[in-house]
């Protein structure tokens, strides 16, 4: 039985302990390091490099990069606190105050929704956003298309904002903790989240279960073989690093037909870009002047090419 078969087999994660611990699919019992690639099951893997006290492994067969150490969902829940969205740490939004960027988040959300609308009408459909953050995507789906929306978010800080400020139905936890009915959702979105999951295979399997036949799965994530290959290895924030081929292979293994991946253009604040470039090139002291200037000038939007890809897949 392959890793994908195990994820789809209800017996493979039956019982409270199995679901709670969610053992990694790339390990054998007692193994201290990954034994195989969880996408292609190749054993041709090797240590790629170390980053932030974590070991990053690479599969020579499909090019997947991933964090070798076990990270629990409880550790991640603690990691994605208020500081992740507002502090000047090397993770998260780099002091850029996520909610100050709300107009840009909403414009990006509308662009993604319109891309899905070209494939399947979204009017009064049911939309599930996995890792929904503050809920801007869901709110746009509700306001623009009259969609019935529901979200899942591991960060209590973000979930509280989505529920109290935007009035959204957002469950605290991850998708595997919910009881969403089978074949009940028209669109599942994972916007910049699949790389954060402890078990992306199980989450994709669950998305396939809750989606109606013909429903859509929307994924955006870093493409390490895309046209712009500027990215940082940032464990434990990012646990997996995909390219367009292995990400589609993962989705197709759970019954999805992928549209050709698209290079993602995104609306950012000009000074946001400057802060991110300072962080990427290790010029941390240069971030604060840009942050101070941003708070004084406000948001100056620009549509720029990114290092990410957009994949829209249809459930068979």
The percentage helix is 25-40%
Full CATH superfamily name of the largest domain: Vaccinia Virus protein VP39
- The low-confidence runs, each spanning 5 or more residues with pLDDT under 50, are 1-20, 91-96
Number of strands: 12
Kindly, what is the distance between the CA atoms of the first and last residues, rounded to a whole number of angstroms? 22 Å
Derived from helix and strand composition plus strand pairing, the structural class reads alpha/beta
- Beta-strand proportion: 15-25%
Level-2 CATH architecture of the largest domain: 3-Layer(aba) Sandwich
Question: What global shape is seen?
Answer: globular
Mean pLDDT: 85
CATH topology of the largest domain: Rossmann fold
Number of helices: 11
Domain tally: 2
Rg from Cα:
19 Å
Largest sheet: 8 strands, mixed
């Amino acid at each position: 039985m392959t890793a994908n078969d195990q994820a789809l087999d209800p017996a493979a994660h039956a019982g409270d302990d199995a679901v709670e611990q969610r053992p990694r699919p790339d390990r054998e019992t007692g193994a201290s390091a990954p034994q195989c690639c969880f996408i292609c099951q190749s054993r041709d893997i090797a240590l790629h490099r170390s980053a932030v006290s974590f070991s990053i492994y690479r599969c020579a067969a499909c090019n997947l990069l991933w964090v070798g150490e076990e990270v629990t969902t409880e550790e991640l829940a603690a990691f994605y606190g208020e500081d992740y969205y507002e502090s000047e740490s090397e993770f998260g939004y780099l002091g850029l105050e996520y909610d100050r960027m709300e107009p840009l988040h909403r414009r990006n959300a509308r662009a993604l929704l319109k891309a899905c609308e070209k494939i399947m009408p979204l009017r009064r459909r049911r939309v599930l956003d996995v890792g929904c953050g503050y809920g801007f995507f869901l709110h746009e789906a509700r306001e623009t298309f009259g969609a019935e929306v529901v979200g899942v978010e591991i960060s209590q800080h973000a979930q509280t904002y989505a529920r109290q400020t935007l009035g959204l139905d957002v469950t605290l936890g991850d998708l595997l903790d919910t009881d969403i009915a089978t074949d009940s959702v028209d669109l599942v979105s994972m916007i910049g989240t699949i790389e954060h999951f402890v078990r992306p295979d199980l989450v994709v399997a669950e998305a396939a279960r809750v989606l109606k036949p013909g429903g859509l799965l929307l994924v955006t994530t870093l493409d390490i073989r895309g046209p712009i290959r500027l990215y940082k290895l940032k464990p434990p924030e990012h646990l997996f690093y995909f390219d367009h081929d292995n990400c589609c292979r993962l989705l197709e293994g759970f019954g999805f037909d992928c549209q050709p991946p698209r290079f993602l253009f995104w609306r950012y604040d000009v000074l946001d870009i400057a802060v991110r470039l300072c962080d990427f090139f290790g010029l941390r002291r240069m971030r604060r002047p840009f942050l101070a200037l941003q708070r004084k000038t406000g948001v100056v939007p620009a549509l720029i090419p990114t290092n990410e890809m957009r994949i829209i897949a249809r459930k068979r």
